[in-house]
Amino acid sequence: MSLLLDETGAKTDAYSRVEEGADLSLVAGAVLVPLTVVDQAIADRRNAPLGLLVAGDTPLCAIEPYFGAVDLIAVAFPSFSDGRGLSLAKRLRRAGFAGTLRAAGPLIADQFREALDCGFDEIELPDAMAARQPVEQWLAAKDIVRDHYQTGYGEELSILQKRLAARRASA
Questions:
Q1: Which domains can be identified in the chain, with CATH numbers?
Q2: Which pTM does this prediction carry?
């Protein structure tokens, strides 16, 4: 079980996770499948809409062929300290993916604004993380936390750029 939220709050998840191709026939409606199953899901044309679940270190070239076939791409985060999924979201948007982007994993509320700014539309949290930081905390953090680690969006410098500028100024 998990909690799904977007910038307005909690929402219902229309997608069911399917890990094996043999299980596609057991689910009616929207499914979220890994790269190992997506070709079979597309060929079966049984489940719509279709979502693709990828790891944060998945090469963009492995995902791009599916842009026209999937409605959602979920990027799995192994931990809140692993920022590769944020970088992948930016690359997916720059490459032209216009569907829904979902961050899936144990992110923390302080990362909500950055996830949205990197291109994610929604966050899927494990129950343990959702219990520790309820929806209200996420919504408050979205409007409070403005510093970010990613470069290339917004007018503000990233945290790293600010640190480098301060180091140069003090030298």
A1: 2-146 (3.20.20.70)
A2: 0.83
